């Protein structure tokens, strides 16, 4: 049975890295002044982690796959995720790291926003690649957090720390938007593949056997995390992946409703609905008419 190191507390991670714990709920460190993590081990995180790479920083794995993790890239880890570290012998870590426990941000505006930072659930080949100017912005925010931790804690500390983390994550949202744009050719190819897979799904008998298609189903076929896939489709089409799937369903339903030899229940089943009433409800929500009303009108 493979060994997994459970890191529920930030102090436990700092101990592995040889980093001083200045605050039990947050740690900011320069990797060049720390030890390498234990090699060939899997680690379960109980807190958020943000890593900025500089130079050769070893090999990270998530879900048994290598991160697309070159010089000047960022990787984000959420509580509950498991990473595997594999390094070459005698390598020296570089870059910067930020760890913060969910308890740190309780009661702050950041706590309400964390679910919006979908890149914490991106996978191995979806890391954020930064330009030199973007790297400097992120490094400045790391330094501000380090400075704040070096000061005596007062009534302003928590809000200042949370605000700086929020600012860093908001910059990462902007930089990911830029990355989606600069990788337009790759994204267009993924969008085209998604459309083809969507057509194939309904032209086959998958809908009858599997049911309604999910975002996760297509993301898996395209070897992407559901969040990254969803964000990419949203950037390219202006609609979420789920909305694109539903739009396809509605358009197909409109076509098939004209076939009066089939009952509405048959059409619902062919499209993947387990219960006809669910199909009726979705169709009326999107068209303003029930399937029977729409058939009569046309």
TrEMBL record:
PROSITE patterns per the UniProt record, alphabetical: HTH_ARAC_FAMILY_2
Residue ranges constituting the HTH araC/xylS-type domain according to the UniProt record: 192-297
Pfam family, any one: HTH_18
Molecular function in Gene Ontology: DNA-binding transcription factor activity; sequence-specific DNA binding
The organism's place on the tree of life at top rank: Bacteria
Keyword Calcium attached: no
Sorted UniProt keywords: DNA-binding, Transcription, Transcription regulation
SUPFAM superfamilies: Homeodomain-like (SSF46689)
Matches recorded under InterPro entries: Homeodomain-like_sf, HTH_AraC, Tscrpt_reg_AraC-type_HTH
Record's keyword annotation contains rRNA-binding: no
Protein name, UniProt field: Transcriptional regulator
Organism field: Flavobacterium reichenbachii
Lineage, highest ranks first: Bacteria, Pseudomonadati, Bacteroidota, Flavobacteriia, Flavobacteriales
